[in-house]
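Action item from last week, closing it out:
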Amino acid sequence: MSLLENLYNVAVNALRPLLPAFGAASPKVSAAVEGRRAAAGEITQWAERERDPFRPLLWLHGSSAGELAGAIPVVNRVQTERPELQLLVSYSSPSAESVLDELGADYAGYPPLETMAACREALECSRPDALVFAKLDAWPALTRAAAELGIPLGMINATVRPSSSRLRGPGRQLLVPSYGRLDAVGAVSEEEIERLEVLGARPEAIRVTGDASFERALERVDRARHAATASNRKLPVETSSAVRLCAGSTWPEDERVLIEAAAALAAPERSGDGTGLELVLVPHEPDAAAVGRIRDLCLEHLGVEPRLWSALADSAPGEDTGPGSPAPMIVDAVGFLAELYLECDMAWVGGGIGGEGLHSVVEPAAASLPVLFGPVYDRWEARQMVHRGIAVEAEPDGVASALSELMSDRKRRDETGAEARRYVESGRGATAASVRLVTDLLGAGIPTSLG
């Protein structure tokens, strides 16, 4: 154990009385703080009631919805192969709750507070046969307590952003022992190996498995395509001449630049061919505040009232309205982004201009769409897609031009979309490779009695 880990443990213990003050920052932070404070006790209570010592237990941790979503195909396959398996899922952000139903966990909640006492209590009571992290977030106290108890540790879909603060300074020094304790690391690509080693992962523990989120995206899109009929369209047919852009998981900064771009494209000097742009805006949090915010932008820049998906959801598909740009649509609901992508011609992925980071670029690519996003991103797949010319990185003042080029060239849209789909298809096999990693860890585990 490193000196920094000791100091970290002391600091977390010393800060425990102050944690409620951190939670005052926002409801999400408050939920996470309170959840972690109570987690060890809640896991203990669950284990006393429902933990079957004759069944293996996999503990899966993911920081948020995105990380856990990428692990879903792996976990589901392991559950199929090992029906006796119990599953405990922990997460750091309340956003993860949106994907819990697909994991079928026996227990789900926040991980214990990052103290040795809390982590050891949770692990000793639950007795997991393996602890697997999804993508990142190998917590120091949790990994140390697990290693001391002889619990195999692993990571699937492992990636480290080149600009990550984890790679330098105190962050790296703190995490090096944590990554060094991992018995198996499934990297998403060859280019991740060096960064994982910088973080402390042992070369002999690393294997390239790929990213299982690619297969999840393919499955979601193909399921939506198979179910698609004229009667269950998510969007009305407004105009045959408009190019439809689905902007998924948008933040305020995305919405502003897209609506400003739509206004620029609607100007007489740029709309000579009659091709209009139809915006379908899917806010990251589609609440009343988002609807009001987008409505104000539409009125300010376009002079029109936006349409609301919930107001049109029960109506029959509309009629062709002829040339021009229909008013933007706000999708004030969740759960069918893949279906929306299939009814559009291009995709914008939110988070690359502002927000909490670029969202998934894989799902619209799986839907055979050219993908655009802002310049602030560090996702490995986004970097690859830009390098291969199947995604467009657009500065805020260049969004209108980027959209115009694609709007005026249907052949380019079709070819780029087809190549994007082939890129996602190239990721097949990641689930099987990650399943082997997890099952190897489960097989390597000491008995659930912890010896």
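Closing note: Residues 316-323, 447-451 have pLDDT under 50 and may be disordered.
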